[in-house]
Amino acid sequence: SSDEDNYEDIDGDDDADEEQMNEEEDPTKCLFCEDVFSTIDSAITHLNEVHKVKLSELQKKFQMDQYSFIKLINYIRATNMSAEELLAAEEVLWGDEKYLKPQGYETWLCYDYDVFKTDVEQDQPSLLELHQLVSHHSLLLQQANEDINRMRDNYRALLEKVSQEPSNNAAQDVPRNKPNFDKEYFNSYSHFGIHHEMLSDKVRTSTYRSALLQNEAVVRGKTVLDVGCGTGILSIFASQAGAAQVTGIDNSEIVFTAMDIVRKNKVSNVELIKGRLEDTALPGKFDIIISEWMGYFLLYESMLDSIIYARDNLLNPNGIILPSRCTLSILGYGNDALYADHVEFWGDVYSVNMNELRKKSIEEPLMEVVDAEFMLTEPEEIAHFDIMTVDMNYSNFTYNFKLNVTKAGRLTALVGYFDTYFDLPSAVMFSTSPKVTPTHWKQTVFFIDHPQEVKAGEIVSGKIISRRHKRDVRALKVEIEIFGHKYKYTVA
Length: 492
Description:
single chain; 16 helices; 17 strands; globular
């Protein structure tokens, strides 16, 4: 059977295993005194009976979620807050984001505090409360669907602010991964919707899993760094493949959930760290660096910057990086219905001419799963990236293409996609081509304003230029010359 259909159930559903895990709780020190208990449940009972602190009542009083409790625990440890001070508090004193960072590991930070929501909601809800609950869940669903669009909006809002700030050195090099840009970037990955989309992409996730589990001889006994670990799935795969120690790092708050996932699945050799890679001291160097860094049109997000940093500063001699290399390709495309929906649409919108927006619709490439039936040319590789040798200038390239027309039609766009390779003894790869199973990366559609009829056997010549955006370092400026016209695009 295929790897796509053989995910191991890392969550586990065996009651006996769950009971055994509960019996193996770590010793838990009281939040307000020096008493230490064998289980966290005993410690919670102690809080109730001795210190009169009931976590369920705190949850109700301050409307606390999992992250709020984590902040509270870290606040108590940092300030030596007493039980009496906590009981007397009338407002949240631990709301600062800095209290998400623990002083050290302790069982309190891994407890599932959502159980208290059930404890305090036993009364039959009113009609108003049910209406509010439905509205709340509808909002969560909408949030999941809008996560990626929110990422783009965050970028644009930030750029407007940055563009108003005076520059001390106009000739200065383009900044790479500046913290003020990164804050918005990492915040966009704190929402579960993005991670659901990535994990449910079987092509993506099963290929990474196969690369590790089918090459256990390469991974066994090695130290592994997972850059941008997210939910921790690649770190867990590396552990399953026999890695001696796995370190995952991510600067998004999702990493706190990943810590719970690792603990609940009893993966003892995986350590997850919240932090920005370039600013975080990690424990030594690593034999293997793994990361899922690819963005739309391969290079959007510029996460490859961090992989290059990790390679140059954290990879052992003779170490390897996974994936090993990527290629970027384009092809000629001619779907008249798609062109009408996204470009010609603006000519008559409820009898209103909105052609002023036509140009904007072309300047912003469409991320879409396109139908291979409308491919008019053979694909052509325009860039190749060996991750062991690529430098920070990777997003700046020019390529003169000659596309071989294989099917007559009206060429309305160029379509970009990428292929990813894991050069291992048991080699694996995946493609985002229109010809294969779709992925969450889809394809990138560059519409042109002047479509052209083409015939089989003809050659469509032109030039494509890619440059890193001067202000938004995670975006791309792309320029395409074709059929005697020049078009400019922003991949953001």
